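Blinded run. Sample ID left blank on purpose so nobody reads anything into the name before looking at the predicted structure. Input follows.
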Amino acid sequence: MVDGRLTRSWRLGRARYDAYLEDHAALGLGLLSLYQADFNSRWYQAAVDRAEEILIHFSDPEGGFFDTRDDHEKLITRPKSIHDNPTPSGNSLACSLLLKLGVLTGKKRYIEPAESALRAMEHRAASYPTAFGEWLTNIDFSLGPTFQLALVGSSEDEGMEAFLQVVDRPYLPRLAIAAGEPGSGGAPPILEEREMVDDLPTAYLCQGFACKLPTNSPQELEAQLQEAMKMRHLGT
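Blinded prediction complete.
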């Protein structure tokens, strides 16, 4: 970061060139994954910052996102990459970040631009799937249904570790996780107004912010997840 702006390259102690769309989006996804690994809200807020940068400075009024900022040096044309070979495009990465933040926050500000871009790509992705792998993953995620898991309690409590072991075992691509103590500042909205039951770590499995009965039992959480998986809600 230089003067509050993300840069693309660093060499011999000097950072240069404004970051492109793919840089902001990939960094945001990495930060979001880091948050769901240790639940430090610093990483979540940093991911939100990348998403806001994308929405403010990279959005195309006709849908999707440009590869360069709105104040980038003048070019003959403003590029807008969409192909995912051999690495995901900036547009598909941006959609992935916005969709995942949308699940954690419920905010249309993130969901609607991503879904608009996905609708524009459906035909191409279906016609040439090997060129649009990340887009297809995003379409699957968007079709959902997606779930949120709010884990309320201290990260040092053995009960929280037991919950995490339950969700770490299966492959749950449509599940977004947030964790923290009641009243944690800077945490995703899914944790707001969630309390511990009987002063024990508590799990809330939710769909669209409508939650099943909270539980203190890792076994009960596992049963809730298995029920959802049988309906092909979380896994494939």
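Unblinding after everyone has recorded impressions. The first strand starts at residue 7 and ends at 11.
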